[in-house]
């Protein structure tokens, strides 16, 4: 039975490692998306500063509309990225839960194997003690209580 549990433990460890790898990938994707959002937000802010500076120097209405339209497209892009961010955060949470479950399964089987080994060792010690008691009884003829 412990051999079968050992095989199950190996499979669970592989599943745990796979879940951990998926979690790492999800976290990397989340970090990359956050960097993209930060970069686009910085670009938007820089563009707005440039627009305000040029407006202070005298900007035609047509050029102002072009600036505003471009800022609106940047805002739309940021909204899309923020929506993706929510999805990525949910994916990371799901991967974390998957890894936690896999880790818990591995730990449970590992603890079961440890308990079985301890029980076997205790049974061996008891058997050895009985054998020693029997040897003493045969040798000296007095039963030990």
Automatic annotation (TrEMBL):
<dbReference type="InterPro" id="IPR052570">
    <property type="entry name" value="FliJ"/>
</dbReference>
<comment type="similarity">
    <text>Belongs to the FliJ family.</text>
</comment>
<dbReference type="GO" id="GO:0071973">
    <property type="term" value="P:bacterial-type flagellum-dependent cell motility"/>
</dbReference>
<keyword id="KW-1006">Bacterial flagellum protein export</keyword>
<feature type="coiled-coil region">
    <location>
        <begin position="16"/>
        <end position="50"/>
    </location>
</feature>
<keyword id="KW-0653">Protein transport</keyword>
<keyword id="KW-1003">Cell membrane</keyword>
<dbReference type="GO" id="GO:0044781">
    <property type="term" value="P:bacterial-type flagellum organization"/>
</dbReference>
<keyword id="KW-0813">Transport</keyword>
<keyword id="KW-1005">Bacterial flagellum biogenesis</keyword>
<dbReference type="Pfam" id="PF02050">
    <property type="entry name" value="FliJ"/>
</dbReference>
<keyword id="KW-0282">Flagellum</keyword>
<keyword id="KW-0145">Chemotaxis</keyword>
<dbReference type="GO" id="GO:0009288">
    <property type="term" value="C:bacterial-type flagellum"/>
</dbReference>
<dbReference type="InterPro" id="IPR012823">
    <property type="entry name" value="Flagell_FliJ"/>
</dbReference>
<dbReference type="InterPro" id="IPR053716">
    <property type="entry name" value="Flag_assembly_chemotaxis_eff"/>
</dbReference>
<dbReference type="GO" id="GO:0006935">
    <property type="term" value="P:chemotaxis"/>
</dbReference>
<keyword id="KW-0969">Cilium</keyword>
<protein>
    <recommendedName>
        <fullName>Flagellar FliJ protein</fullName>
    </recommendedName>
</protein>
<keyword id="KW-0472">Membrane</keyword>
<keyword id="KW-0966">Cell projection</keyword>
<keyword id="KW-0175">Coiled coil</keyword>
<dbReference type="GO" id="GO:0015031">
    <property type="term" value="P:protein transport"/>
</dbReference>
<dbReference type="GO" id="GO:0005886">
    <property type="term" value="C:plasma membrane"/>
</dbReference>
